[in-house]
From TrEMBL:
GO terms for molecular function: DNA binding; DNA strand exchange activity. Pfam families: Recombinase (PF07508), Resolvase (PF00239), Zn_ribbon_recom (PF13408). Residues 14-163 form the Resolvase/invertase-type recombinase catalytic domain. InterPro entries: DNA_bind_recomb_sf, DNA_bind_recombinase_dom, Resolv_N, Resolvase-like_N_sf, SSR_resolvase, Zn_ribbon_recom_dom. This is Recombinase family protein. Keywords: Coiled coil. CDD domains: Ser_Recombinase. Residues 434-461 form a coiled coil. Residues 171-294 form the Recombinase domain. PANTHER family: DNA RECOMBINASE-RELATED, DNA-INVERTASE FROM LAMBDOID PROPHAGE. PROSITE patterns: RECOMBINASE_DNA_BIND, RECOMBINASES_3.
Amino acid sequence: MKHGRGSKGGARMRAYIYLRLSVDKEDGKAQSIDAQRTAIHDYARRNNIEIVEEFADTGLSGQSSKRPAFNRMIEQATDGTNPVDIVLIYRIARLARNMRVFFNSLDGLADAGVEVISITENFGESRRTKRMGQTISAMVAEQQAIDASIYTSKSRRENARQGFYNGGPVAFGYETYVARKDGDKERMKLRIVPAEAAVVDQIFNWADMGRGGRWIVSELNRRGTTLRGAKFSNGNLSGILRRVTYTGIYYDKTVDDDGNVPDPEDWIAVVCPAIIDQPRFDRVNALRASRNPRRTAPHIVAGTTMLTGIAKCGTAGCACAMTIRTGKGGRYSYYVCANRVNKGQSCPTPSMRREVLDDLVLDTVEKQLLAPERLQSLLADVLDLSDQKRVQREQELSHAKAEQTRLRTGIERLLILVETGQMGPRDPIFAKRMEENRSALAAATTRIDALETQLAQGSRKITPATISRFGDLLSARLRDEDPTLRKDYLRMLVSDVTVSNSQITISGPKAVLENGVCNGAPRLMGTVPIFDREWCPKADESDEYESPLLLP
């Protein structure tokens, strides 16, 4: 193609110019935007071409059609008003490095009477040879882009295997730094930003105590704490609480040579400084899963009514939940059997004033469950440090770790189904199984912590004074002025309150007490896992706790 034609029918030809700088050097020939612009303007001046407008994309690959300036240029050039006669580019590779994009754009421009001219490539004068030359050049450019992509992917995977950061958004609480230089290449790693890490740690502490997302967001914003200048919201808080990076490891998911996202077992684990320990991370996410509205009704999670969701009718053949009803224009609230509400007086279980039943349950838990003598009896298993008991605990620890591994594998397999498109994250089955696995994993992790602490005690025994202080601490938490926190702590200790016309029976998980007396005040775990041993006995379990309240 000769580059000397600058007029068409005696009129000066008009042109758009398109400039693009990719994210990489593209086979080592990185022409800057300024270099392309200078060369094209020189060409236009020599050939008497009027430049109407300039379009430039920076940092975008020619393999993609999602380039704002490129799409705007095509749209304007083909809108039917004939604004230009030609489009000037530095070389075909600047226009596209993908054959589909190349043909679509070239054909669209040709249909509008617009010619594409590469100022550095000569494709001849005839229409046939010009199109053939442009096509061959585009094919070569596409293959070069594919080769460069494969090389880049290999380099990124190797970079990750060596423990370096491949780029992308940096998690709040971290920053990147140059860990090593290989010539012009800077190898980056993550390190902790103390001020941000303190915020992350506080967020997880609040979540571990049972604080809800809205409360945490409100408190952070009230304090003026920001997320790198932005206000906290439910969305970015959820992202922080889900981010596994805070446990000291993240996974590089660079695509393979065919451009496919690898399966989870092929992800590359990269170690980084930890801000949150794994057990706390598991507990928080189990609690969040238990509060998911697909599993637990929102009014149970967010409400302050203490026994909603755990108070049940104890009449034989009923077993309905106790619901709240009001009287005297809303001045009084009552727990009422749902069957009694729906079917009249068919259930003999009486209604009970909310504050009366709440106080009865709180007083019973305080005076009977948390009394030092009762705690010593319930925690006899923890206090027994005999050789036989030690062997039993070691076996139980082994089983608990196997269960932990099984649950983590189950979670990973569920994520694989989402990653491969076989199941969607909003699928009810996926949500149910993920929540169950996360809750079970948190319970297994808590049990492991308790067993490991017990085995590590050695000759250091837990004294009656220790148990007494533990009971006092829990009593204080149950009398906290925050009704939401008070409710959450009670629900951690109590899983069922069964009300009949003659007595009230209270039961709950024993594992919380065992772990708490070994490691300090128990953290809120959300709903009680169904496989936990309980402190309210069944008929054949005399070593567990029973707290019946006889009603007049």
